[in-house]
Amino acid sequence: MSTRAWLLFAAMGIIWGIPYLLIKVAVTEIEPATLVLGRTAIGTALLLPIALLRSDVRALRPHWRLIVVYTFVEVIAPWFLLSHAELRLSSSLSGLLIAGVPMVGALIAWLTSHDDRPDAWRWIGLGPRGTGGFGYDPLFVVAGDGRTMAELSAAEKHSLSHRGRAAAKLRARLAQEPR
């Protein structure tokens, strides 16, 4: 790897690890629930004015119940569980456990006979291809395509990703709801 690549790799490690260190420090002084409330409140304070200026909030108003459920499942519960875990685990172990989430997803796909099953090359991280994207993208080969996620355009990747598919389903569901 080039010097630039090593520097970017080191910077990513620092950027990835600092939140877990800060959580570890914070939970020694305040309760995890308070920490989660504070993190969520800061995020809300930063993002809500932008959404209000863009008039994006009005379209979501009829769907507030779905948004509350989504926020709990994707934001509050994981942050609370992570903050609570750091009362007993080191911040480095917490970061490593979070970093392992994609591998757990791949294992679940393999165990449930999902069509994008990981093979030996993906498990051991050999043979990355492509320069687009980040993280694991060069390792995940698209089923039936032969290209990795890093070799796809952003639009192709979005149409295949679980988040892209979930967003499309949410848009369709929101379009069905009365305004």
Search tags:
179 residues; 9 helices; mainly alpha; single chain
What would you note in describing this structure?
- The chain is globular, with a radius of gyration of 19 Å.
- 9% of the residues are buried.
- The protein is mainly alpha-helical and 179 residues long.
- It is 66% helix and 0% strand.
- The protein has nine helices and no strands.
What's the structural blueprint in terms of helices and strands?
Elements: H1 3-26, H2 32-53, H3 57-60, H4 64-85, H5 91-99, H6 101-111, H7 120-124, H8 154-160, H9 162-176
The biggest sheet, with number of strands, parallel, antiparallel or mixed sense and barrel status, is: none
Supply Rg.
19 Å
| Overall pLDDT level | 78
SSE-based structural type = mainly alpha
- Strand content is under 5%
Short structural summary:
The chain is mostly helical and 179 residues long. The chain has helices spanning 3-26, 32-53, 57-60, 64-85, 91-99, 101-111, 120-124, 154-160, 162-176.
